[in-house]
């Protein structure tokens, strides 16, 4: 969300969703990440309605920084470092799980991709622990 938003905590944000909610900025409903947020809202008895649908997480950050609503995204050090954004981690929401499946020998490009995604996941995990 924009840093100048009146909302100061994740709990305050979730409480606001019960009354006059701020618009949610999200990836399309068929995306795995969006389905996880929808599930997290449902377990709290909250209505999940996308106000602004975007095609990428980069666009999501841009719209949130401009004050068009609250962006729903994964933990991202880039967003935490953006002076125009306020990051509010949502506790007890479903985790996004990534997997890879292949048959035969893994190609060099696929190995490089898996190494990079594992490195990035570790980086995200360690930044959340700080």
Annotation keywords:
130 residues; mainly alpha
Q: List the domain count as a whole number.
A: 2
Mean pLDDT: 85
Number of helices: 5
| SSE series | HEHEHEHH
Assign the structural class, choosing from mainly alpha, mainly beta, alpha/beta, alpha+beta, or little secondary structure.
Answer: mainly alpha
What general form does the structure show? Answer: globular
Beta-strand content: 5-15%
Give unreliable regions as ranges. none
In the sheet with the most strands, the strands line up as 2-1-3
The number of strands is 3
Tell me which oligomeric state these chains represent. Answer: single chain
Helix % is 40-55%
The main β sheet shows up as: 3 strands, parallel
**C-alpha Rg, in Å?**
16 Å
First-last Cα distance: 21 Å
Tell me what you see in this structure.
The protein has two domains: 72 residues, no CATH class; 33 residues. 42% of the residues lie in helices and 7% in strands. It is built from five helices and three strands.
